[in-house]
Structure formats: C-alpha cells, structure tokens
Amino acid sequence: WSARLWCTCLWGMTMTFDTAFDRLLGNEGRYCNVPGDPGGETNWGISKRSYPNFDIARLTKEQAKTVFRRDFWDPLGDADPAIKFQVFDFAVNSGIQTAIRKLQAAIEVADDGHWGPISAAKLATCDRNDVLMRYMAQRLRFWASLSTFPQFGKGWINRAAKQLEFASEDN
Predict the structure, then answer these.
(1) Which long-range contacts (CB under 8 A, 24 or more apart) does 101-106 make?
(2) Kind plus residue range of the DSSP H or E element containing 22
(3) How does DSSP classify residue 72?
(4) CA distance readout (Å), 96 to 5, 50, 72
(5) Across 12-19, average pLDDT
(6) Contact 167, 132 (CB under 8 A)
(7) Taking a C-beta distance cutoff of 8 angstroms, is the pair 98, 142 a contact?
(8) Which of 45, 47, 48, 111 makes an SS bond possible with 41, Cβ 3.0 to 4.6 Å?
C-alpha cells in the first residue's frame, strides 16, 4: 500500500524551476576546488571556468539560483518539464551548449547547441519517454568519451542513476 501511495504522490507532481533546483542541489554541493576537475573552482554547481568574473567562494545559493534560471532553465522555453529538468541537470554538469547538443542529437535534429524553433518543434512531436531514454544514452556516451572519466565517472554514473529515477517519476 505505501508503495502505491508513494507512486501516486510522485506521479501527480508538477515540475517547476523550484523543484528542479531543489533536485539539482542533491547533485551539486557547496564550494569545492577538486584537482583535475575541468570546471575548476565550483560553488552550488557554478564554475569559475564558466563564470570567470564571479567570486565563486562567496556565491550564495540565491545567486546560483538566479544564474541557473536565466542560463540553464529558461533557454528551453516551454519544453516538456520532464525533459527540461534533464537538460537543466546536464547543463549544470557539462555546459548548456553540450546539454542542448545532446538533446538535439536525441531528437535527431542538427546538433548546433542553439535551441530554436526547429528543435522546439521537433521535440514537441516526440514521445517523452523515448526522448528521456535517448537523452540519457547521449549523456552516458558523452561522459564515457571524456579523459576525466576514470576520475569522475563513478560520480557521473551515480548521477545518471538518480536522473533515471527522476525521469521515471516525471514520466
């Protein structure tokens, strides 16, 4: 009975940016500067490499949330929220252009890294579940191709597992 109640509650959830942000914080921690991480100095998932003019060490959660909404959530416009969340999470992990390129590859349009009307129109015709599964396949292949996979791959695979659980809840 409790499993049925749990599933009913999750399936009724509506994805919002606030929900996406809260989920993201399960993958992105506070300040760190891990040797070998191409992102370099990072706080709340915001990297010095992507935002060289930010004081990363003093970045607040609210400042990160503002950046994430503007630069990682809003670019997909009114895309399906379950898919939008997956792109958001991947964008924070690997950059917005990479995340968009991999979504474009998953829906079989030109993967130029710029979300526009052609990509949006194609996504609107696709089955959500198919896109979620194909997108995760794109993410896993991308991570596996990176020279840093031996160092960070276990964490990325665990992140992928969590994202698959979220995709199941959202689908």
Answers:
(1) 102/135, 102/138, 102/139, 102/142, 103/131, 103/135, 103/138, 105/138, 106/131, 106/134, 106/135, 106/137, 106/138
(2) helix 17-24
(3) I
(4) 36, 10, 6
(5) 79
(6) yes
(7) yes
(8) 48
pTM, two decimals, is: 0.87
Q: Which two tokens stand for residue 70?
A: 């503007």
Amino acid (1-letter code) at residue 137: A
Residue 16: φ, ψ to 5°: -125, 170
Quote the CA–CA distance of 43 and 40 in Å, as a whole number: 10
Q: What is the pLDDT of residues 28-70, one digit of tens each?
A: 878 989 888 877 899 998 999 899 999 999 999 999 999 999 9
Tokens 């710029």: give the residue: 114
The residues, any chain, with a CB within 8 Å of residue 53's CB and separated by 6 or more, are: none
Residues in the chain: 171
Q: 132: which DSSP letter? A: H
